[in-house]
Specification:
- This protein is α+β, with helices and mostly antiparallel strands.
- Among the domains are: about 190 residues, no CATH class; about 200 residues, no CATH class.
- It has 17 helices and 20 strands.
- The radius of gyration is 32 Å and the shape is globular.
């Protein structure tokens, strides 16, 4: 509830074009005073459910912030060699000789078990260097307090740095949060934001593999740093016969044709509604690159709404291995602070729980909404405040509206199929679901009607005893009948037998439901093109044409076994509602699907459907489609007890080859497809060469006054 928009409060707007940095404590003073009062004295509050007053006390569990704001709130500068607020001065980050950037290359072997083979390897990481140091221990709140208690607060001193800054510590102040009596007892008072971390790690890999000009981490300076720190002769800058320098093409970088194939695949890729933004807009086919991808396009397993403690322990073991394997592939300049932070995410998830209660997604959306309220750019802060107060008043007033008055507070959630039903559920009938769009009254042909009626009978619990009776009769008539022939007989003759059996007065069957089922459904049916059920939005294949999403993939599970072999996959062709005669009303929604199987069995119950989407392969296996299952929105699925896959990659990494095909040779040279670059010797002063490289958000440098680049180009940290 606390993450919903109506419970977010805009308490402070900090004016100005840039972030306040450590001076944010000045603006937080009123908030801290109220938090201290809430903890010590409490506030009399009215409980509307019990209709009585009570003394309410409150405490801050943790702060939710991006990485620059982490430094503002905690007082630990999140830039430079000591940027990591967990490793602190025990960080092994260093400045690269040529790129002149801070690198976390070869800083993760210390997180491996002491007997791990990577610790003794002196060729695949920093050349001639092993790793003997242990994993840095996390400091407790009491230990951190002992370190900062002597530091001045922002209100006490305006000095930028205290003695030992940048070498022994990175403290810029004593945070105002330490005034809270309970702050030192919190296990993790600040969060490393998973949202921005996952995005930056993904983009670093994407831009480097796609060799995106201006954003790749694989540059001339990177290769010179590689020569300085690593033993990868195949990737070192080479001098040609004419005195120029050649940057060999890396094995991890795609060729132009491969990049075009990826771009075409991403451009044509369609996913279910609400699971990803429109990826086609991120594709630039003319330059064979991807750009403009948002944070929600880059999810990882740790963002699951259900986390198993055992799996989080395995993640803590796997993440250092994955980072070490990446260190064997990419150059040292690839590893900025964002590539280091994932080492701590699994522990934070294990202590705090799912990231949905700790990341910046809802607040980034809230800030975006506030920015859209600006109507007077000459007075931005006042424009936001006025619009926000108006929205708060209308939201408060909506609690007194009659239940039939629509408002944002009572709006049906996205893909919520639990719509109101005029008829109470009965067996498999009247199952809650929500149709929308145009409704068409139609009829089914005899073959479709028989198939639909048969499927309903076979899946109705009240009919199961009569299926058993009919099966016993068939076995008595033919002692040698096998299961396959028995199923054929049931499919062909069971509905007719059931009707005659139930309506025969000699059998004394008075069940109204059975008699209604025996008569069969009405001839007229209702059809829709859109239906929401089980948290999924389903759209027929014909209706889905031309859309940027794909919502017609259907999966139905057969049997109790969760094996993939028991799942059937198809495409939704039609949505049909059948109604049976008699009282009470009995309606059932069927999905008519194309299963691509030889037998004719097109229908399933709508409540049985799960959603999948089908994806083609970028190269090869063009006649095959990959099936990807999706999770229903706002649903928590049990993960089971299966151990997750190990951090697999072939440890016997081969030397990066310098040989390329003839048709790729031109792409290595400067000015052609940006695959490589060749410079004359007299222009190759690598240490002083200025490169205009666009840094990915929140990357760090050795210059502590370097401005941080925000995702939207502005500092969102100004709004609290």
């Amino acid at each position: 509830m606390c993450m919903k928009r109506e419970f977010m409060f805009l308490t402070i707007i900090i004016p100005g074009p840039s972030a306040p940095k450590k001076s944010i404590d000045v603006y937080l003073r009123p908030l801290i005073d109220e938090l201290k009062m809430l903890w010590e004295d409490g506030v009399m509050t009215y409980d509307v459910s019990l209709k009585q007053n009570f003394l309410m006390k409150a405490a801050v569990m943790w702060t939710i912030n991006d990485f620059p704001a982490y430094g503002m709130l905690s007082g630990w500068m999140t830039m430079g060699k000591l940027a990591c607020p967990v490793c602190m001065e025990r960080s092994k980050a260093f400045s690269l000789a040529y790129s002149r950037k801070v690198s976390w290359f070869d800083c993760h072997r210390r997180f491996l078990p002491e007997d791990h083979e990577y610790r003794t390897c002196k060729k695949k990481f920093t050349k001639g260097k092993g790793e003997t140091s242990t994993t840095p221990r996390r400091l407790t709140g009491e230990e951190v307090w002992e370190r900062v208690r002597h530091l001045p607060s922002v209100e006490e001193s305006k000095e930028d740095h205290s003695q030992g800054y940048g070498v022994e510590h990175h403290w810029t102040k004593r945070s105002i949060f330490w005034e809270l009596p309970y702050w030192k007892t919190l296990l993790l008072p600040h969060n490393i934001d998973v949202m921005h971390t996952e995005r930056n790690v993904f983009l670093n890999i994407l831009y480097t593999v796609m060799d995106t000009k201006g954003k790749t981490k694989d540059t001339f300076k990177s290769r010179k740093d590689l020569e300085e720190y690593c033993m990868r002769g195949g990737l070192e800058v080479q001098q040609t016969e004419n005195g120029n320098f050649l940057k060999p093409k890396a094995q991890y970088a795609l060729t132009k044709q491969q990049r075009l194939s990826v771009c075409e695949w991403v451009s044509d890729l369609k996913l279910p509604d609400g699971y990803v933004s429109n990826l086609a807009r991120c594709v630039d086919r003319s330059e064979a690159k991807l750009s403009g991808m948002k944070s929600h396009d880059c999810h990882r397993e740790i963002t699951s709404s259900l986390l198993m403690e055992s799996k989080l322990h395995i993640m803590e073991e796997n993440i250092p291995i994955i980072l070490c394997k990446l260190e064997q592939i990419f150059p040292p300049s690839f590893f900025d602070s964002m590539e280091h932070l994932p080492i701590h995410l699994a522990y934070e998830a294990r202590v705090r729980g799912p990231v949905q209660y700790r990341w910046m997604y809802p607040f980034e959306r809230f800030i975006r909404t506030l920015k859209q309220k600006v109507t007077n750019k000459a007075h931005v802060e006042g424009s936001i405040a006025k619009a926000y107060l108006l929205e708060e008043m209308s939201t408060f007033a909506s609690y007194y509206y009659p239940s039939d008055v629509p408002s944002r507070r009572t709006r049906v959630p996205r893909n919520d199929g639990e719509g109101s039903s005029e008829n109470p559920p009965l067996s498999i009938f009247n199952h809650p679901g929500r149709s929308y769009g145009k409704c068409i009254t139609s009829t089914l042909n005899d073959k479709e009607m028989e198939a639909g009626h048969l499927y309903i009978l076979l899946n109705c619990p009240e009919v199961v005893p009569y299926i058993n009776i009919y099966s016993d009769l068939l076995r008595e008539l033919d002692l040698e009948i096998n299961d396959e022939d028995l199923d054929k007989q049931i499919s062909m003759r069971f509905p007719t037998w059931l009707k005659s059996y139930v309506l025969d007065s000699r059998n004394q069957i008075d069940d109204v439901l059975l008699k209604s089922l025996a008569w069969g459904p009405l001839k007229n049916v209702k059809k829709w093109r859109n239906y929401i059920i089980n948290g999924y939005k389903f759209v027929t294949k014909s209706q889905n044409e031309g859309m940027s999403t794909t919502d017609y993939g259907v999966c139905v599970r057969c049997g109790e076994n969760d094996s993939v072999d028991n799942d059937y996959y198809g495409m939704l062709i039609d949505i049909v509602e059948l109604e049976y005669t008699g009282s009470p009303t009995k309606k059932v929604v069927l999905f008519q699907c194309d299963w691509r199987y030889p037998s004719y069995d097109p229908f399933i119950l709508a409540q049985q459907a799960e959603q999948v989407h089908f994806s083609s392969y970028p190269e090869g296996q063009q006649s095959w489609l990959a099936v990807i299952k999706t999770k229903a929105r706002n649903a928590i699925q049990f993960l089971g007890k299966n151990k997750p896959d190990d951090a697999y990659q072939d440890d016997d990494v081969q030397e990066m080859p310098t040989m390329v095909a003839n048709d790729d040779l031109e792409e290595i040279l400067v000015g052609i497809a940006d695959e490589g670059e060749e410079l004359p010797w007299n222009q190759m002063d690598l240490k002083d060469l200025e490169e205009d490289e666009e840094e990915i958000e929140y990357s760090t440098s050795s210059e502590e006054e370097e401005e941080l680049i925000e995702e939207d180009g502005n500092s969102d940290s100004n709004m609290e």
